[in-house]
Amino acid sequence: MGLKSGRRGPLDPAAIGMIFRREMIRLTRDPSRLAGSLGRPLLWFLVLGLGMGSAFSGFQGVPYIRYLLPGIVGMNLLFASFLSAISVIWDREFGFLKEMLVAPIPRSSIVLGKTIAGAAVACLQGCVVIAFAPLMKIPLSPERLLLILPAMFLVAFSMTALGLLIASRMTSFEGFGTLINFVIMPMFFLSGAVFPMDQVPPFLKGLGAINPMSYGVDLLRGVFEGTTLTAGWRSAAVLAAFSFVAVAAADWAFRKRS
Q1: pLDDT tens across 154-194, in order?
Q2: DSSP 149-206
Q3: How far is residue 66 from each of residues 58, 61, 134, 179, measured CA to CA in Å?
Q4: Lower CB count within 10 Å: N or C terminus of the chain?
Q5: Residue 133 carries which DSSP code?
């Protein structure tokens, strides 16, 4: 599938759409990705929700397993976003990235197309987790879902942009896989997904404050529980700003490679 476009502006919608379509086709040809998105949260629910849930009465006025659900959604978005970013290394390995870089399209269109596609794939995997909500006795009205889905996309978009930035500097699947393990797990555990960050030592609280995933989990928890809008807008603003910086940095990294 080749990329041809005569547009040389800052963005090329046709190229973005083609890259998005290609990533969706890849997803349909690899159903194991969606199967994995079901197995991972189910395992965490069993280990944390049922195992540790018996040791905690709950946090922030809700049962622990209900507190955990937005965190597990965030975890699935985080993992799926970074795994989507590995497509950059795959494309480089098989020559498609070179074809995109020499095509007459803006580099920013490549980055944005990859980011939007990765975020969409991550959101699909996040929706798998939402299916657990009725089991947690968490009511999700259509109005609530209209807030949850954009929040999920914003979290996934920001994490995919970060993953693309990292992947653009890596040269092998092994190197990327090793590095993201050192990135994903601290981001997850220092995000407040499993326990409130106000109960940790000050230096960990400081790390949590600069962790973009902390704001993602706060945003998701707010829309799931219907809590204060002020905190939700603040978290959304931080994620939007982080997304802009990460996309710009990934765009710069792609330009350096070309």
Answers
A1: 999 999 999 988 888 877 777 777 888 888 889 998 998 88
A2: HHHHHHHHHHHHHHHHHHHTT---HHHHHHHHHHHHHHHHHTTTSSS-GGGS-HHHHH
A3: 8, 10, 10, 31
A4: N
A5: G
